Amino acid sequence: MHPTRKAAVTAAALLVMATASGCESGAGGAASHRSSAKPGCPTALSRAKQAVKKAEAVNAPWRGPTTGPKAVHGKSVVYIAQTLTNPGVAGVARGVQEAAKIVGWQARTLNGEGTPEGLRAAFKRALRLKPDGIVISGFDPGVAAAEVKKANSEGIPLIGWHAAPAPGPSKDPKLFSNITSRVEDVAKISADWIIARSNGRAGVVLFTDATVPFAKRKSDLIKKELATCSGTKLLSYTNMPIPQVNRRSIGEVRSLLSRFGRKWTYSAAINDLYFQHAAPALRAAGKDGAGAPFNIGAGDGDPSAFQRVNGKEFQAATVPEPLSEQGWQIVDEFNRAFSDAPESGYVAPVHIATAANSGGALSWDSEGYRQAYRKIWGD
What we know:
Elements: H1 3-6, H2 8-20, H3 42-56, E1 76-81, H4 87-103, E2 106-111, H5 116-128, E3 133-137, H6 145-153, E4 158-161, E5 168-170, E6 175-179, H7 183-197, E7 202-208, H8 213-226, E8 232-239, H9 245-260, E9 266-269, H10 273-284, E10 294-297, H11 303-311, E11 317-318, H12 323-338, E12 353-354, H13 369-377
Parallel strand pairs: 1-2, 1-3, 3-4, 4-6, 7-8, 7-9, 9-10, 10-11
Antiparallel strand pairs: 5-6, 11-12
Helix pairs in contact: 2-3, 3-7, 4-12, 5-6, 7-8, 9-10, 12-13
Protein backbone atom coordinates (compact mmCIF):
# COMPACT_ATOMS: atom_id res chain seq x y z
CA MET A 1 0.00 0.00 0.00
CA HIS A 2 1.18 3.53 -0.78
CA PRO A 3 2.48 5.32 2.38
CA THR A 4 -0.23 7.94 2.01
CA ARG A 5 -2.95 5.34 2.36
CA LYS A 6 -1.18 3.63 5.25
CA ALA A 7 -1.49 6.84 7.20
CA ALA A 8 -5.06 7.63 6.15
CA VAL A 9 -6.84 6.03 9.07
CA THR A 10 -4.45 7.59 11.57
CA ALA A 11 -4.81 11.01 9.94
CA ALA A 12 -8.59 10.74 10.00
CA ALA A 13 -8.55 9.82 13.67
CA LEU A 14 -6.26 12.73 14.50
CA LEU A 15 -8.57 15.11 12.67
CA VAL A 16 -11.61 13.89 14.58
CA MET A 17 -9.73 14.37 17.86
CA ALA A 18 -8.57 17.83 16.80
CA THR A 19 -12.07 18.89 15.80
CA ALA A 20 -13.45 17.72 19.11
CA SER A 21 -10.90 19.87 20.95
CA GLY A 22 -11.39 22.93 18.79
CA CYS A 23 -8.23 22.39 16.69
CA GLU A 24 -7.84 21.79 12.97
CA SER A 25 -6.00 19.16 10.96
CA GLY A 26 -2.91 20.00 8.99
CA ALA A 27 0.73 20.35 9.88
CA GLY A 28 0.60 18.94 13.39
CA GLY A 29 -0.70 20.09 16.75
CA ALA A 30 2.39 21.93 18.02
CA ALA A 31 2.63 24.11 14.93
CA SER A 32 -1.06 24.85 14.50
CA HIS A 33 -2.30 28.41 14.42
CA ARG A 34 -5.34 28.50 16.66
CA SER A 35 -7.73 31.29 17.50
CA SER A 36 -9.55 31.43 20.81
CA ALA A 37 -12.16 33.66 19.19
CA LYS A 38 -15.43 32.23 18.01
CA PRO A 39 -15.40 31.10 14.39
CA GLY A 40 -16.20 33.89 11.95
CA CYS A 41 -18.34 31.60 9.79
CA PRO A 42 -19.89 28.62 11.62
CA THR A 43 -21.71 27.18 8.60
CA ALA A 44 -18.81 27.56 6.16
CA LEU A 45 -16.40 26.26 8.81
CA SER A 46 -18.43 23.11 9.41
CA ARG A 47 -18.64 22.42 5.68
CA ALA A 48 -14.92 23.07 5.20
CA LYS A 49 -13.92 20.72 8.02
CA GLN A 50 -15.96 17.88 6.52
CA ALA A 51 -14.46 18.45 3.07
CA VAL A 52 -10.91 18.56 4.43
CA LYS A 53 -11.43 15.42 6.48
CA LYS A 54 -12.52 13.55 3.36
CA ALA A 55 -9.66 14.87 1.23
CA GLU A 56 -6.97 14.15 3.81
CA ALA A 57 -8.19 10.64 4.57
CA VAL A 58 -8.94 9.58 1.00
CA ASN A 59 -8.01 6.05 0.04
CA ALA A 60 -7.24 5.96 -3.64
CA PRO A 61 -7.37 2.57 -5.28
CA TRP A 62 -7.37 2.83 -9.06
CA ARG A 63 -10.68 4.15 -10.36
CA GLY A 64 -9.41 5.02 -13.80
CA PRO A 65 -9.91 3.12 -17.06
CA THR A 66 -9.58 -0.65 -17.09
CA THR A 67 -10.39 -1.18 -20.76
CA GLY A 68 -9.16 0.40 -23.96
CA PRO A 69 -7.26 -0.29 -27.19
CA LYS A 70 -4.12 -2.39 -27.19
CA ALA A 71 -0.90 -0.48 -27.61
CA VAL A 72 -0.10 0.80 -31.09
CA HIS A 73 3.65 0.42 -31.44
CA GLY A 74 6.21 2.52 -33.26
CA LYS A 75 4.76 5.97 -32.51
CA SER A 76 6.55 9.17 -31.54
CA VAL A 77 5.39 12.01 -29.31
CA VAL A 78 6.88 15.39 -28.39
CA TYR A 79 6.28 16.93 -24.97
CA ILE A 80 6.48 20.72 -24.99
CA ALA A 81 7.14 21.91 -21.44
CA GLN A 82 6.23 25.45 -20.40
CA THR A 83 9.45 25.40 -18.41
CA LEU A 84 11.34 22.50 -16.88
CA THR A 85 11.96 24.63 -13.79
CA ASN A 86 8.28 23.97 -12.98
CA PRO A 87 8.52 20.69 -11.04
CA GLY A 88 4.96 19.69 -11.95
CA VAL A 89 5.61 20.03 -15.67
CA ALA A 90 8.90 18.16 -15.27
CA GLY A 91 7.24 15.39 -13.22
CA VAL A 92 4.62 14.72 -15.89
CA ALA A 93 7.36 14.71 -18.54
CA ARG A 94 9.10 11.90 -16.67
CA GLY A 95 5.84 9.97 -16.51
CA VAL A 96 5.38 10.32 -20.27
CA GLN A 97 8.94 9.10 -20.88
CA GLU A 98 8.41 6.11 -18.60
CA ALA A 99 5.11 5.06 -20.17
CA ALA A 100 6.31 5.67 -23.74
CA LYS A 101 9.18 3.28 -23.14
CA ILE A 102 6.71 0.59 -22.05
CA VAL A 103 4.77 0.80 -25.33
CA GLY A 104 7.85 1.18 -27.50
CA TRP A 105 7.38 4.82 -28.50
CA GLN A 106 9.90 7.58 -28.95
CA ALA A 107 9.24 10.50 -26.59
CA ARG A 108 11.14 13.76 -26.73
CA THR A 109 10.85 16.70 -24.30
CA LEU A 110 11.34 20.28 -25.50
CA ASN A 111 11.75 23.15 -23.04
CA GLY A 112 9.73 26.30 -23.81
CA GLU A 113 11.79 28.11 -21.14
CA GLY A 114 8.77 29.99 -19.80
CA THR A 115 8.52 32.68 -22.49
CA PRO A 116 6.08 33.11 -25.41
CA GLU A 117 9.04 33.21 -27.80
CA GLY A 118 10.52 30.05 -26.31
CA LEU A 119 7.22 28.21 -26.44
CA ARG A 120 6.58 29.13 -30.06
CA ALA A 121 10.12 28.10 -31.00
CA ALA A 122 9.68 24.77 -29.22
CA PHE A 123 6.36 24.18 -30.97
CA LYS A 124 7.88 24.96 -34.38
CA ARG A 125 10.65 22.50 -33.63
CA ALA A 126 8.11 19.88 -32.56
CA LEU A 127 6.27 20.27 -35.87
CA ARG A 128 9.51 19.89 -37.83
CA LEU A 129 10.05 16.55 -36.07
CA LYS A 130 6.74 15.34 -37.55
CA PRO A 131 5.65 13.37 -34.48
CA ASP A 132 2.47 11.35 -34.19
CA GLY A 133 1.36 13.42 -31.20
CA ILE A 134 2.27 16.60 -29.30
CA VAL A 135 1.76 17.43 -25.61
CA ILE A 136 1.07 21.04 -24.61
CA SER A 137 2.18 21.10 -20.99
CA GLY A 138 1.51 23.92 -18.55
CA PHE A 139 0.86 26.78 -20.95
CA ASP A 140 -1.96 28.45 -22.83
CA PRO A 141 -2.15 27.04 -26.39
CA GLY A 142 -3.13 30.53 -27.52
CA VAL A 143 0.52 31.54 -27.08
CA ALA A 144 1.29 29.37 -30.14
CA ALA A 145 -2.04 29.68 -31.96
CA ALA A 146 -0.54 29.41 -35.46
CA GLU A 147 1.41 26.30 -34.51
CA VAL A 148 -1.64 24.71 -32.89
CA LYS A 149 -3.63 25.39 -36.06
CA LYS A 150 -0.91 23.81 -38.20
CA ALA A 151 -0.82 20.70 -36.00
CA ASN A 152 -4.60 20.42 -36.28
CA SER A 153 -4.47 20.79 -40.06
CA GLU A 154 -1.80 18.11 -40.29
CA GLY A 155 -3.88 15.70 -38.24
CA ILE A 156 -1.45 15.58 -35.30
CA PRO A 157 -3.40 14.88 -32.09
CA LEU A 158 -2.74 17.40 -29.32
CA ILE A 159 -3.07 16.55 -25.63
CA GLY A 160 -2.80 19.21 -22.96
CA TRP A 161 -1.65 19.07 -19.37
CA HIS A 162 -3.06 22.10 -17.50
CA ALA A 163 -3.48 23.67 -20.95
CA ALA A 164 -7.23 24.36 -20.75
CA PRO A 165 -9.63 25.26 -17.93
CA ALA A 166 -11.29 21.84 -17.71
CA PRO A 167 -10.34 18.18 -18.09
CA GLY A 168 -11.30 16.25 -21.22
CA PRO A 169 -11.60 17.18 -24.90
CA SER A 170 -11.46 20.80 -26.03
CA LYS A 171 -12.87 22.32 -29.22
CA ASP A 172 -11.13 25.70 -28.95
CA PRO A 173 -8.24 25.07 -28.87
CA LYS A 174 -8.69 21.67 -30.47
CA LEU A 175 -7.29 19.12 -28.01
CA PHE A 176 -8.00 15.40 -27.99
CA SER A 177 -7.94 15.74 -24.21
CA ASN A 178 -6.67 18.00 -21.44
CA ILE A 179 -5.25 16.16 -18.44
CA THR A 180 -5.81 17.85 -15.12
CA SER A 181 -7.70 17.52 -11.89
CA ARG A 182 -10.86 19.60 -11.74
CA VAL A 183 -9.68 23.09 -10.95
CA GLU A 184 -12.89 23.78 -9.04
CA ASP A 185 -12.17 20.90 -6.67
CA VAL A 186 -8.51 21.83 -6.14
CA ALA A 187 -9.30 25.50 -5.51
CA LYS A 188 -12.17 24.77 -3.16
CA ILE A 189 -10.29 22.26 -1.03
CA SER A 190 -7.25 24.57 -0.78
CA ALA A 191 -9.41 27.40 0.55
CA ASP A 192 -11.37 25.01 2.77
CA TRP A 193 -8.11 23.81 4.34
CA ILE A 194 -7.30 27.40 5.34
CA ILE A 195 -10.80 27.99 6.70
CA ALA A 196 -10.82 24.70 8.63
CA ARG A 197 -7.29 24.91 10.00
CA SER A 198 -7.62 28.53 11.12
CA ASN A 199 -11.04 27.91 12.68
CA GLY A 200 -12.43 30.55 10.33
CA ARG A 201 -9.92 33.25 11.35
CA ALA A 202 -7.13 33.77 8.81
CA GLY A 203 -5.23 36.57 7.10
CA VAL A 204 -4.38 35.19 3.67
CA VAL A 205 -1.91 35.99 0.92
CA LEU A 206 -2.79 34.39 -2.42
CA PHE A 207 -0.12 33.89 -5.12
CA THR A 208 -1.02 33.36 -8.78
CA ASP A 209 0.29 33.43 -12.34
CA ALA A 210 -2.13 35.60 -14.29
CA THR A 211 -0.37 34.80 -17.58
CA VAL A 212 -1.79 31.27 -17.55
CA PRO A 213 -5.61 31.18 -17.78
CA PHE A 214 -5.80 27.85 -15.94
CA ALA A 215 -3.73 29.22 -13.05
CA LYS A 216 -5.63 32.51 -12.92
CA ARG A 217 -8.96 30.70 -12.83
CA LYS A 218 -7.69 28.49 -10.00
CA SER A 219 -6.67 31.46 -7.88
CA ASP A 220 -9.92 33.28 -8.63
CA LEU A 221 -11.82 30.22 -7.38
CA ILE A 222 -9.67 30.07 -4.23
CA LYS A 223 -10.48 33.72 -3.62
CA LYS A 224 -14.20 33.01 -4.11
CA GLU A 225 -14.21 30.13 -1.64
CA LEU A 226 -12.25 32.08 0.98
CA ALA A 227 -14.94 34.75 0.75
CA THR A 228 -17.55 32.26 2.03
CA CYS A 229 -16.03 32.75 5.49
CA SER A 230 -16.42 36.27 6.85
CA GLY A 231 -13.59 35.77 9.34
CA THR A 232 -11.11 34.93 6.60
CA LYS A 233 -9.50 38.04 5.14
CA LEU A 234 -7.66 38.18 1.82
CA LEU A 235 -4.73 40.48 2.53
CA SER A 236 -3.09 40.36 -0.88
CA TYR A 237 -3.70 38.80 -4.29
CA THR A 238 -0.16 38.73 -5.69
CA ASN A 239 0.60 38.04 -9.35
CA MET A 240 4.01 36.42 -9.95
CA PRO A 241 4.38 34.50 -13.23
CA ILE A 242 5.97 31.11 -12.54
CA PRO A 243 9.12 31.80 -14.63
CA GLN A 244 9.74 34.91 -12.47
CA VAL A 245 9.16 33.33 -9.06
CA ASN A 246 12.81 32.50 -8.41
CA ARG A 247 13.95 36.14 -8.78
CA ARG A 248 10.91 37.97 -7.41
CA SER A 249 9.92 35.92 -4.36
CA ILE A 250 12.37 37.34 -1.84
CA GLY A 251 11.41 40.93 -2.59
CA GLU A 252 7.68 40.17 -2.65
CA VAL A 253 7.80 38.27 0.65
CA ARG A 254 9.78 41.03 2.35
CA SER A 255 7.22 43.56 1.14
CA LEU A 256 4.30 41.44 2.35
CA LEU A 257 5.89 40.96 5.77
CA SER A 258 6.47 44.70 6.02
CA ARG A 259 2.88 45.50 5.07
CA PHE A 260 1.02 42.87 7.06
CA GLY A 261 3.31 41.54 9.78
CA ARG A 262 1.53 39.07 12.07
CA LYS A 263 -1.77 39.57 10.25
CA TRP A 264 -0.35 37.31 7.53
CA THR A 265 -1.14 33.87 8.95
CA TYR A 266 -1.88 31.74 5.86
CA SER A 267 -0.90 31.56 2.20
CA ALA A 268 -2.18 29.72 -0.84
CA ALA A 269 -0.44 29.49 -4.20
CA ILE A 270 -1.44 27.99 -7.52
CA ASN A 271 1.81 26.00 -7.51
CA ASP A 272 4.11 24.65 -4.78
CA LEU A 273 7.08 26.31 -6.46
CA TYR A 274 6.17 29.63 -4.84
CA PHE A 275 7.00 28.32 -1.38
CA GLN A 276 10.32 26.87 -2.46
CA HIS A 277 11.45 30.41 -3.22
CA ALA A 278 9.52 32.14 -0.44
CA ALA A 279 11.20 30.01 2.22
CA PRO A 280 14.56 31.87 2.26
CA ALA A 281 12.84 35.22 2.81
CA LEU A 282 10.64 33.83 5.57
CA ARG A 283 13.66 32.21 7.20
CA ALA A 284 15.66 35.43 6.97
CA ALA A 285 12.80 37.24 8.68
CA GLY A 286 13.09 34.88 11.63
CA LYS A 287 9.96 32.90 10.84
CA ASP A 288 9.60 29.32 12.08
CA GLY A 289 9.21 26.81 9.25
CA ALA A 290 6.50 25.06 11.23
CA GLY A 291 4.71 28.29 12.14
CA ALA A 292 2.73 31.07 10.52
CA PRO A 293 2.25 31.85 7.74
CA PHE A 294 0.95 28.32 7.10
CA ASN A 295 1.24 27.65 3.39
CA ILE A 296 -0.73 25.37 1.07
CA GLY A 297 0.16 24.71 -2.55
CA ALA A 298 -2.84 24.16 -4.81
CA GLY A 299 -0.69 22.01 -7.11
CA ASP A 300 1.37 20.23 -8.15
CA GLY A 301 2.75 18.09 -5.32
CA ASP A 302 6.25 17.50 -6.66
CA PRO A 303 8.88 15.76 -4.48
CA SER A 304 10.38 19.02 -3.21
CA ALA A 305 6.94 20.13 -2.02
CA PHE A 306 6.50 16.86 -0.13
CA GLN A 307 9.93 17.37 1.44
CA ARG A 308 8.90 20.80 2.70
CA VAL A 309 5.57 19.49 3.95
CA ASN A 310 7.08 16.44 5.66
CA GLY A 311 9.85 18.54 7.22
CA LYS A 312 7.48 21.41 8.17
CA GLU A 313 9.69 23.83 6.28
CA PHE A 314 7.48 26.77 5.29
CA GLN A 315 4.82 24.60 3.67
CA ALA A 316 2.11 22.86 5.67
CA ALA A 317 0.13 21.17 2.89
CA THR A 318 -0.12 20.48 -0.81
CA VAL A 319 -2.98 19.46 -3.07
CA PRO A 320 -0.95 17.17 -5.30
CA GLU A 321 -1.54 16.14 -8.85
CA PRO A 322 -0.59 12.50 -9.45
CA LEU A 323 2.20 13.63 -11.77
CA SER A 324 3.65 10.32 -12.90
CA GLU A 325 0.17 8.82 -13.22
CA GLN A 326 -0.92 11.71 -15.42
CA GLY A 327 2.12 11.15 -17.66
CA TRP A 328 0.94 7.58 -18.12
CA GLN A 329 -2.58 8.83 -18.78
CA ILE A 330 -1.27 11.10 -21.54
CA VAL A 331 0.30 8.10 -23.28
CA ASP A 332 -2.94 6.14 -22.88
CA GLU A 333 -4.98 9.03 -24.33
CA PHE A 334 -2.63 9.23 -27.32
CA ASN A 335 -3.02 5.49 -27.82
CA ARG A 336 -6.79 5.99 -27.90
CA ALA A 337 -6.40 8.82 -30.41
CA PHE A 338 -4.14 6.70 -32.62
CA SER A 339 -6.73 3.89 -32.45
CA ASP A 340 -9.69 6.16 -33.32
CA ALA A 341 -11.16 5.52 -29.87
CA PRO A 342 -12.71 8.22 -27.63
CA GLU A 343 -10.72 9.70 -24.74
CA SER A 344 -11.00 7.90 -21.42
CA GLY A 345 -12.84 10.61 -19.45
CA TYR A 346 -10.78 9.88 -16.33
CA VAL A 347 -10.08 12.67 -13.81
CA ALA A 348 -7.92 12.01 -10.74
CA PRO A 349 -9.52 12.56 -7.31
CA VAL A 350 -8.65 15.58 -5.16
CA HIS A 351 -6.35 14.98 -2.18
CA ILE A 352 -4.58 16.99 0.55
CA ALA A 353 -1.15 15.81 1.70
CA THR A 354 0.24 16.94 5.06
CA ALA A 355 3.00 15.74 7.38
CA ALA A 356 0.31 13.87 9.30
CA ASN A 357 -0.93 11.74 6.41
CA SER A 358 1.85 11.51 3.82
CA GLY A 359 3.63 8.64 5.55
CA GLY A 360 6.91 10.23 4.48
CA ALA A 361 6.11 9.79 0.78
CA LEU A 362 7.45 12.21 -1.84
CA SER A 363 4.54 11.85 -4.25
CA TRP A 364 0.92 10.89 -4.40
CA ASP A 365 -0.90 8.86 -6.99
CA SER A 366 -3.59 6.20 -7.21
CA GLU A 367 -2.68 2.66 -6.35
CA GLY A 368 -2.17 0.29 -9.27
CA TYR A 369 -2.22 2.72 -12.19
CA ARG A 370 0.87 1.23 -13.85
CA GLN A 371 -0.56 -2.28 -13.68
CA ALA A 372 -3.93 -1.07 -14.99
CA TYR A 373 -2.47 0.70 -18.00
CA ARG A 374 -0.08 -2.13 -18.83
CA LYS A 375 -3.01 -4.54 -18.78
CA ILE A 376 -4.97 -2.28 -21.15
CA TRP A 377 -2.00 -1.96 -23.50
CA GLY A 378 -1.28 -5.69 -23.48
CA ASP A 379 2.27 -5.31 -22.13
